[in-house]
Design a protein that fits this description.
The protein contains 12 helices and 6 strands. The chain is α+β, with helices and mostly antiparallel strands and 374 residues long. Among the domains are: 3-113, 2-Layer Sandwich (Alpha-Beta Plaits); 136-230, no CATH class; 321-374, no CATH class. The strands form 2 sheets. It has a 4-stranded antiparallel β-sheet. A two-stranded antiparallel sheet has the order 5-6. Strand 1 and strand 2 (13-21) form a beta hairpin. Helix 1 packs across helix 2 (52-80). It is elongated.
Length: 374
């Protein structure tokens, strides 16, 4: 029978003192000894056939480690039964005493799911930011950027290139839009049977045809559509961000260090992905910035804390609103994935759990948007 003493510590840490008597461990001890003894060689005996009193001293330390490896987690599970403690990280164990015939006393340090309190989220008031209006100047800048790069790739004839407008970079803002929103855009560059030629030094109909439009006016129309879609998408992101910031500000939680560290690592992976997309290595980027990974994490720590607080607050609202994602909803989202290799990853349980959580958070955000807009 396990005896325990549970002490709550700051930052959702819990110290569990556990004593496990020998009668609860003896049968497993004998199993471990017999398993290890089969590989022990002692002069004068066949392998594994020596008397146990000769074998045990040689394997006692190894047997103790194996016994504790199995016994401590099981004892911790039993000790936490009937409590509201839900560990969110691997426990850290410290053996305080072990004596054959007596038992083991050890300490387990676990991080529990933190208690989260969210204020009156149903009264959140957020004003939607004004929608950016696309001007002729905005369109002209994109056209000029496209034309300049088109001429660089085709200096002699201005022949059709492999650039893609709408689905690829067409200027800083449009690049951010297509990468973040996933919008495919309306223009496609491609090979043509008869490469167009132009002697013009300004964008013209021949250039426009080379990038997939019927003429320059059609090109500008398509670009306007892409920029307006980008503006609408970014406006929605800004609106959602304002709501989430309100949630973060009204969320009270003592954030465990492990959650902040996990968020910092996620931010680092995101940076590494962005740097790789630009054709650089993370080490090269860090050298250019004259910074180390630790320095970056220190700079990000406040933002990471806010991200975690917002995430926990949103999850608490999801519980309060009884938001659930059905198996059918989860599978429908997986079925949207076109890449077979990525789709196959969701046959495993962990990716499905992450996706279910993300869908639950999105559904909760939509509930908040309806509340704010009502």
């Amino acid at each position: 029978m396990v005896t325990k003493n549970i002490v709550k510590l700051p930052k959702a840490m819990v110290e569990v003192q556990i004593s496990l008597p020998w009668p609860d461990m003896e049968s497993r001890w004998n199993e471990v000894l017999n398993k290890l003894a089969s590989d022990v060689e002692i002069p004068g005996f066949r392998k594994g056939q020596a008397p146990m009193d000769m074998i045990e001293p040689k394997i006692a330390q190894q047997a103790q480690q194996e016994l504790l490896r199995v016994s401590m987690p099981q004892a911790l599970i039993e000790a936490l039964q009937g409590t509201n403690i839900v560990p969110i990280d691997y426990p850290r164990y410290e053996v305080q005493s072990f004596q054959k015939g007596v038992g083991v006393t050890f300490k387990a340090l676990v991080t529990e799911r933190p208690q989260v309190k969210v204020g009156s989220y149903k009264t959140i008031k957020v004003t939607r930011p004004p929608l950016k209006q696309i001007t002729d100047s905005d369109i002209d800048k994109v056209v000029e950027d496209l034309y300049r790069r088109w001429k660089v790739r085709n200096p002699s004839t201005g022949s059709a290139s492999s650039l893609q407008a709408g689905s690829g970079p067409v200027g800083p803002q449009a690049q951010a839009s297509t990468q973040s929103s996933g919008a495919s855009g309306s223009l496609q560059f491609g090979k043509t049977d008869t490469p167009p030629t132009t002697t013009s030094n300004v964008p013209d109909d021949i250039f426009a045809k080379g990038v997939g439009a019927t003429d320059l006016a059609d090109l500008k129309k398509k670009i306007r559509g892409d920029l307006e879609a980008e503006a609408k998408y970014n406006n929605e992101l800004d609106y959602e961000e304002a709501i989430l910031q309100s949630v973060e500000k009204m969320t009270e939680v003592d954030i465990p260090d492990i959650l902040i560290e996990d968020e910092l690592n996620r931010m680092l992976v995101s940076l590494q992905r962005n740097v790789t997309d630009r054709g650089m290595l993370l080490d090269e980027y860090l050298r250019a910035q004259n910074k180390t990974v630790d320095q970056l994490k220190n700079e990000w720590r406040r933002q990471a804390e806010q991200n975690v607080r917002m995430e926990l607050g949103l999850a608490q609202i999801a519980s309060s609103e009884n938001v659930v994602i059905s198996d059918e909803e989860l599978q429908a989202e997986i079925d949207k994935i076109q890449d077979k290799r990525i789709k196959a990853q969701f046959e495993a349980q962990e990716p499905r759990l992450h996706l279910r959580h993300a869908l639950r958070q999105t559904k909760t955000l939509n509930i908040l948007k309806n509340l704010v807009g009502s």
